[in-house]
Amino acid sequence: MKDFLSKLGIKHENSGTSTGQEFLKDVTSEKITSYTPSDGSEIATVYETTKSEYEEVVQKSQEAFKEWRMMPAPQRGEIVRQIGEELRKYKEPLGKLVSYEMGKVYQEGLGEVQEMIDICDFAVGQSRMLYGKTMHSERPQHRMYEQWHPLGPVGVISAFNFPVAVYSWNAMIAAICGDTIIWKGSEKTPLCGVAVQNIIGNVLKANDVPEGVFSLITGGREVGEWMTTDERIPLISATGSIRMGKQVAQTVGARLGKTILELGGNNAIIISKDADLEMAVRAVVFGAVGTAGQRCTSTRRLIIHESVFDELKDRLVSIYQSIKIGDPLDEDTLVGPLIDQDAVQAMQNALKQIKEEGGKVITGGEVLENMEGHYVKPAICEVKNHYEIVQEETFAPILYLIKYSSLKEAMEYHNGVKQGLSSAMFTLNMREAETFLSHRGSDCGIANINIGTSGAEIGGAFGGEKETGGGRESGSDAWKAYMRRQTNTINWGDELPLAQGIEFDV
Ligand code: NAD
After folding, report:
1. What are the positions of the active site (predicted)?
2. What's the mean pLDDT when you consider all of the chain?
3. Hey, CA dihedral for 328, 329, 330, 331, is it positive or negative?
4. Fewest CB atoms less than 10 Å from the CB: which of 98, 297, 390, 391?
């Protein structure tokens, strides 16, 4: 057993329900086995949540909500502050577990935990800033204002590729808003959920906060569907594939519930003839091969001006040939494994389709059969933007090179996909940069100049347009999605005037 696992309270068999404890473990429960993609070996198992356990979790969450919503928001912030402190203590073992269970390199595992700490800090401040507006009433001696109330138990469904950070973006903001949280993480990374739940559990116990404020359930699509169909859960925040998002939107929409959808991307960088190529190359490589191309914000398409196309291509190919691929916990590794064999197969299928549609694989794409685990060489391909395969998000390190000659053409390629998450342009030309950020520029939720598509900070609202789902999480005023708005009018006079000057004498 690796020592970081025991530090996080991970055992051979783990309860996957509520605050990481055993109290609900149902003996008939199925187990989910977690394997490390680094060598394919089994790490540990987690009991899958049964329907009866799910019922208990929702009831505990509803009960906890009654207490939690009445705690002043800054006091809820204090609990979140302590969670942030606890995460600081566990940053190293949790970063290692993220790396070991998901396969991203250790530095990125640490980065995920840091993101959790950052959102805790942000949420603490936000807990004193749940501002509502006041309005001047048209009626004399009347006051109008709006206030924000918590929603209730919020369901968070998350993806394998950010097994802890995405949860915390939702959970810490929802918590300071006064909601309780029921989290179903990915069935591919169940141990990350158990570890985070154990860490949060320490804080809840020390403060006598009901454990139903933060609950964990484990399982796959079916368990997710218990949540999406459940009228007791007014908001579902779901992160994952577009296919999943369409199902969740329909199911939750059918009961007129609320959703925050954070779905797939097909992110591009435009490299202008006026780009600083040195900076562009570094940003492209991090964006395209970081997390082995398994970020929602991974750079998938490079739209390159014809005058710098060959130079950029040659530089990228030479860097790709020396990228160190291997054990994600090894400090020298830049690219770890893909999550599983299905992901390796999906990448191989995509490379085949690229060739069938007329594209060229210039470098990489091979499966590293000699290594245990799901390792591939990141690939660079020359393609046309309209190819069907280029229009899709293949969740693997494939970088598409597309040539352009005018900015108008570049923008058409850029926006000519169904997804709209992250985007970037490298240029030192102010007119081009401002065009890219203007109403007729990028149609994505995130648009950057002279930095890449991935690696967002928590301070901004994170999310995307079109098939990316339209949700926003994390910073800015994303907190509003976790609350309900109420408009209040108070008459402090002794008459009852009606709005719009309507006369109604009785
Ligand atoms: P996935 O869609 O296979 O699964 C995501 C989660 O949804 C899992 O917990 C799964 O059990 C659950 N699920 C699946 N079908 C469901 C249903 N019908 N009802 C309820 N729950 C259901 O995605 P994945 O392979 O884990 O993650 C990769 C995808 O996630 C990529 O498309 C990536 O771009 C996207 N992603 C998006 C963001 C973002 O913020 N936009 C962030 C991370 C990942």
Report:
1. 262
2. 96
3. positive
4. 391
Distance 438 CA to ligand 1 centre (A): 31
- Tell me: the pLDDT tens digits for 291-349? 999 999 999 999 999 999 999 999 999 999 999 999 999 999 999 999 999 999 999 99
Distance CA 184, CA 434 (A): 41
| pTM for this entry | 0.97
CA angle (471 as vertex; 468, 475 as ends), nearest 5 = 125
Pocket test for ligand 1, best of 104, 217, 230, 239 (most atoms within 8 A of CB): 239
Q: What is the pLDDT of residue 219?
A: 95
Measured from the CA of 159, which atom of ligand 1 is nearest? 26
Looking from the CA of residue 247, the nearest atom of ligand 1 is 18
Domain extents in the chain: 3-263+469-486, 267-449
- Report CA(212)–ligand 1 centroid distance (Å): 24
Give 1-51 pLDDT, tens digit per residue: 589 999 999 998 887 765 545 555 666 678 999 999 999 999 999 999 999
Taking CA 209 as the corner, what is the angle to CA 208 and CA 214, rounded to the nearest 5 degrees? Answer: 140
Determine the Cα–Cα distance for residues 147 and 142; give it in Å rounded to an integer: 16
